[in-house]
Amino acid sequence: MEAEKKQIRYDVAIIGAGPAGLGAAIYAARGGLKTVIFEKGFVGGQIVLTAEVENYPGFEEPVSGYHIVEKIKKQVQRFNAEIKMEEVSAISPEGLCKIIETDENTYRAKTVIYCAGAYPRKLAVPGEQKFTGRGVSYCATCDGALYKGRIVAVVGGGDSAVEEAIFLTTFAKKVYLIHRRDDLRAVHAIQDKALKNNKIEIIWNSVVQEIEGDNAIRNLILYNKKTEQNSSLAVDGLFVYIGIIPNNYLVESRIDLDENGFVLTDDNRQTNIPGFYAAGDIIKKVLRQVVTAVSDGATAAFSAEKWIRDHSDQFPE
Amino acid sequence: MEAEKKQIRYDVAIIGAGPAGLGAAIYAARGGLKTVIFEKGFVGGQIVLTAEVENYPGFEEPVSGYHIVEKIKKQVQRFNAEIKMEEVSAISPEGLCKIIETDENTYRAKTVIYCAGAYPRKLAVPGEQKFTGRGVSYCATCDGALYKGRIVAVVGGGDSAVEEAIFLTTFAKKVYLIHRRDDLRAVHAIQDKALKNNKIEIIWNSVVQEIEGDNAIRNLILYNKKTEQNSSLAVDGLFVYIGIIPNNYLVESRIDLDENGFVLTDDNRQTNIPGFYAAGDIIKKVLRQVVTAVSDGATAAFSAEKWIRDHSDQFPE
């Protein structure tokens, strides 16, 4: 059966059709490279789950993540990049080339741009899915400004959770920080700031058990692990900061990662393997946003084009 | 008179209202920072000179640079960032703060994001200005794809000129490389590729003396410095690659620059001075495009917000 699978050759194979992958495809295809994007789920990545994006530069009014991504997708198609709805199961080197195996075929590409993304760890409680994008958020930079003068809660106890709780006091009149233990994991300097901030109230030893509401969030049902009691907390929004998980399983054996599993890249967005790039939420970076993802993708594609040109003598025809 | 000047305090002062400065302003102002942008010329930067942009992600049809920038500018205004049409004459430290002097006032800011841009060195010949954006280009990544099957010329002899000449052979049927000397400055490996490429013809010892045309470029008038003869060369486009000049004069005494005068930044887009950031074409980077500029700006603003929060105890009220 293996022999029946074809080997189709591309200049660049992009893994993942989120903003990074689509941004890469625009620059790669427009730069004259034969370009394919592989996507196992849906085109657009995490941002399509967001009802209102107001900080992607170029859209003066708030629009849905889906709207932005649809426009970028049409742009990709205009430059004749292929989008294949196939799940990649393995990527392996073959000389300077890379072999990409999917559930349907085998492909050979001169370069790979890995844009498989990352996702926030979920609470996995009733109401979370229903209210995602309508009160439940995993990104204070994205959604904090929507809570001016309102009451929000943050779940978590690490640096990110505590920092975002402090950041949210810029907008919200009250920020509850819900933590399952009786001390924070965040570094001391950050803890101090949170403890001194009179808008922040820490709710210790507690977990969110359920999220209640109608069109929007109204209440959290909390469970106190010490007292073993339930209680209800009225909030307008809930920010979940209990970790972000990179989709690195296709590359973790070969590509250098940081201690949290994010892909390490240089300024060209190249990984430790020549001709193998990464972009978007999957990489170690300062700010995970649509605009930084498409920018990473553009840089990776530009670098890939140059790398192919520099090695043009060494590829088999 | 000096005493009459007011000191007005901002969280962040952005120098330059191109895509990087506007991108920074969206993220800074939306992040709750009191934000001002200083601009000495016109809002939008170099990109407003471009008639057709087809690779900024989110615009499925080609649009003018002006159109994109107008949309981003409205977004900036929605978040109440101020745009002041004042020319900055000096930036100096005062403890953790930065003092910004303009022709009209003196301002104090906790952070600066320097987005003063860069500009391509011009040929300074008749026709250049008239045909800029209509056949004369300074960016093959931006405009190369517009010359499918056509004839273009590149001016220059360094790495960029020769690399872009090779890149342009992806689209153009013929690429003339016009160089004023009888050997190229580009590194050998790149030269070799150009010399072997049968779409590239090098015109040695020659300079462009005039650009002729009607609605579009038709001819270049060349002057051969050896033979002292003029000649005419029919082309559809001219790519000028004779250097890019960073607008670094306000920072060159204090900020670390690379050997070409571009500002060095870390992954947070911070310079060697804490709380002093830079973004866009002014920084050392792989790819100078609108999308990478707005992304840099967003990252710088995000970093500035965090830096102010981390140092909140240390600023005078």
Salient structural properties:
homodimer, 317 residues, alpha/beta, FAD/NAD(P)-binding domain, 7-stranded mixed sheet, 5-stranded parallel sheet
What is the topological layout?
2 copies of one chain form a homodimer.
Chain A: E1 7-15, H1 19-30, E2 35-38, H2 65-78, E3 82-84, E4 88-94, E5 97-102, E6 106-114, E7 118-120, H3 128-131, E8 136-137, H4 140-143, E9 151-155, H5 159-168, E10 174-178, H6 188-196, E11 200-203, E12 206-213, E13 217-224, E14 230-234, E15 237-240, E16 244-246, E17 276-278, H7 290-310
Parallel strand pairs in A: 1-2, 1-6, 2-3, 6-17, 8-15, 9-10, 9-15, 10-11
Antiparallel strand pairs in A: 4-5, 5-6, 7-16, 12-13, 13-14
Helix pairs in contact in A: 1-2, 1-7, 5-6
Q: Explain this structure to me?
A:
- Two copies of one chain form a homodimer.
- Chain A is an alpha/beta fold.
- Chain A folds into two domains: 7-119 and 244-310, FAD/NAD(P)-binding domain (3-Layer(bba) Sandwich), CATH 3.50.50; 122-240, FAD/NAD(P)-binding domain, CATH 3.50.50.60.
- Chain A contains seven helices and 17 strands.
- Chain A has helices at residues 19-30, 65-78, 128-131, 140-143, 159-168, 188-196, 290-310; strands spanning 7-15, 35-38, 82-84, 88-94, 97-102, 106-114, 118-120, 136-137, 151-155, 174-178, 200-203, 206-213, 217-224, 230-234, 237-240, 244-246, 276-278.
- In chain A, strands 1, 2, 3, 4, 5, 6 and 17 form a seven-stranded mixed sheet that branches.
- The longest helix of chain A has 21 residues, at 290-310.
- The two termini of chain A are 26 Å apart.
- The model of chain A has no long low-confidence stretch (mean pLDDT 93).
- Chains A and B meet through helix 1, helix 2, helix 5 and helix 7 of A and helix 1, helix 2, helix 5 and helix 7 of B.
